[in-house]
Amino acid sequence: MVIIALTPDGERTIWMLTQGSSFEFLSPRDLDYVDRVQPDAVFVSGVLMGSQPVADNILARMPSWKGKYKIYYDPNLRYPTDAVPPEVAECNRRCSDLSDVVLTGREEAQALGLCRRPGQTFIVKDGKNGSALIGEDGEPRYSLPSTEHKATDATGAGDAYAAAFTCADMEGMPVEQAMRFATVAAGIAVTRSGARCMPPRQEIEEYLASWEVR
Q1: DSSP 8-state class, residue 198
Q2: Burial 46-76 (b: 16+ CB within 10 A, else e)
Q3: Which of 83, 87, 141, 188 might form a disulfide with 135, Cβ 3.0–4.6 angstroms?
Q4: How far apart are CA 64 and CA 140, in angstroms?
């Protein structure tokens, strides 16, 4: 069960009730499916990092995916940033370190202690303040503002960003261009209610064509 509370300006708080659910029973045999289908990329969400045995099963398998598939990771933190259990933070740090692309929120990165590793694409999202590509020195190498869409519901915006960036990146767009594509997708998403708010590609591209970054 998922409970989502919205504030008048569209910001949301999410509670996920997963204890005893099927999510907790992802087994090594289930993960064998990845190697059977041989995908170009694997997207790992940190939403269940801390739930066992699923967290340990995923972390045990990720090293074998390294170099075989491109690994994308989004913490998708479901704890208050000032009350993250140590074991959850540790699982997320390990997951981040094993990934090729990290798409994290600013507060998530601070709460979990995430940092860029050599060779990674490490992007920090900061809601209305836009996003930044972090360089080898730990400082922003490229920054992008958010769009001027008026938010009504931020639920699913991070997922829209992650999906759009992954799509653009896998298609071979330069990172900066992929960030623009993802930013527009997230900007449109916040104007719609509910978690299933991913805009169609044509709508993203039409907005991109006239978006002047300031």
Answers
A1: P
A2: bbbbbbeebbebbbebbeebeeebbbbbbbb
A3: 141
A4: 30
Nearest to 188 by CA among 151, 159, 163, 213: 151
Which residues have CB under 8 Å from 32's CB, separation 6+? Answer: none
Token representation of residue 21: 């659910």
Question: Taking CA 133 as the corner, what is the angle to CA 128 and CA 136, rounded to the nearest 5 degrees?
Answer: 145
To the question of pTM greater than 0.85 for the whole model, the response is yes
DSSP state of 46: G
What number is the average pLDDT over the span 141-149?
92
Closest CA to 145 of 178, 183, 113: 183
- Respond yes or no on whether the N-terminal peptide bond of residue 28 is cis (omega within 30° of 0): no
- 3-state percent breakdown (helix, strand, coil) of the chain, nearest 5: 40, 20, 40
d(CA 30, CA 115): 30
Q: Which two tokens stand for residue 127?
A: 């809601």
**How confident is the model at residue 158, as a pLDDT?**
85
Query: Tens digits of per-residue pLDDT, 29-62?
Result: 889 999 999 999 999 998 878 788 889 999 999 9
